[in-house]
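Question: does this match?
>
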Amino acid sequence: MTGFKVTPRPKPLVDPGKLAAFAAGADAQPDSAVQDATPQVVKAPAKAKEAKELDDKRRIPAFVLRLTERELAGLKHIAETTPHSMHEFCLNAVRKALNLNIK
């Protein structure tokens, strides 16, 4: 190969001290507040009440939904056996949960 030269990186990409601190936290037990996953009705902040003024037509890619294989198989089954797509089913479920939990 001509013209190519591999130069070693002068310092590591990650600070070893920060990496060790991060790894040490992996074994820590989560707070009891985090373990309690029971759904709670949350009083919406003022910004959520103003959400009615926001654009309700244009879709914004908010985040990637991570599912287990079983959950994905269930969604695929719904898409195949009902007139709803996987996206439509999830969107309806999110809307229903938002209507129940935001007051």
